[in-house]
Amino acid sequence: MLEFDDRIAVAVSGGKDSTSLLHILAKIEHNYPKASLVAVTVDEGIRGYRDEALRIATENCKKLDIQHHVISFKELYGYTLDDIVKRLKEEDKSGVTPCAYCGVLRRKALNIAAREVKANKLATAHTLDDETQTIFLNLLHGDTSRITREKPITDEVHPKLVQRIKPFCEIPEKETALYAYIRKMRFQDLPCPYASEALRNDIRLFLNRMEQKHAGIKFTIFKSMEKITLATEKIGGKEEITECAKCGEPTTGEICKTCEMLQQLKMLY
Ligand code: SF4
Ligand code: ZN
């Protein structure tokens, strides 16, 4: 995943997984004088939640002497997630969860932030648990194209897309948490007030039950999907990436998912 001279942007939310990742990468990077590390945090604008996480992220960066770059939904899109949730209620889009918007908007924000700090790698703290849950979530949503796009190392397909890596993709969440506790790190433990992905929670419970009964099953699922992704790429090829007609950011459609979502809510910046 990493080269000796990478400039790595680490996506740090302030939670235990990303805090562990930051500490571990800082430790590794220390031995590579030509590599550099910078933390990036997306401030979605969730009152009473993200503000505390941001403070914790800043604190950890100071402790490790790592540059910290913050990018916000407000400055990028003109609205906070709180504004978007309010509009969702007004438009009566009760079937769409705040997470659906937040995930898409944050993905784009992280890529922009990584570019701003001139990183050539963007490391996120997705664990084995996140990865296997996402496989099932995409399957159950019928989102087949996304299943094969979620890879531990993305392809370098567009100059505006910073290559994403997931160093924890084979590490169970229990272990990243344990590391954070053992090293006595400070992280945010508070759940997001919008956390509402009922289906993901059901999948989490199911996978945890399966893992308890059949140790190693999450790892098997992850590895199976890796093989399926490779095979699908050989048959179907890869999607072509162009630039969004509205914002110029990389996309597979005419306009990117962020612009599409904000347009639907009549909130396009
Ligand atoms: Fe965003 Fe949902 Fe995560 Fe909250 S739980 S930060 S709304 S993705
Ligand atoms: Zn766009």
Q: Overview of this structure, please?
A:
There is one protein chain. With 269 residues, this protein is an alpha/beta fold. 51% of the residues lie in helices and 11% in strands. The chain contains 11 helices and 7 strands. It has helices spanning 16-29, 50-64, 73-77, 81-90, 98-116, 128-141, 144-149, 173-182, 198-213, 217-236, 257-264, and strands at 7-11, 36-43, 67-72, 121-123, 163-165, 242-243, 250-251. It has a 5-stranded parallel β-sheet, with helices on both faces. A hairpin with a 6-residue loop joins β6 (242-243) and β7. The radius of gyration is 18 Å and the shape is globular. The protein starts with 6 loop residues before the first strand and ends in a 5-residue tail after the last helix. The mean pLDDT is 92. Zinc ion binds at residues 244, 246-247, 249, 255-256, 258-259. Zinc ion is lined by residues 244, 246-247, 249, 255-256, 258-259.
Number of strands: 7
Strand order of the largest sheet: 3-2-1-4-5
| Pattern of helices and strands | EHEHEHHHEHHEHHHEEH
- Cα distance, first to last residue? 35 Å
Helical coverage, percent range: 40-55%
Number of helices: 11
Radius of gyration (CA) equals: 18 Å
Shape type: globular
Bound molecules: iron/sulfur cluster, zinc ion
Outline the low-pLDDT stretches.
Answer: none
Largest sheet: 5 strands, parallel
| Estimated structural class | alpha/beta
- What is the average per-residue confidence, as pLDDT, rounded to a whole number? 92
Strand percentage lies at 5-15%
Notable features of this structure?
single chain; 269 residues; 11 helices; binds iron/sulfur cluster
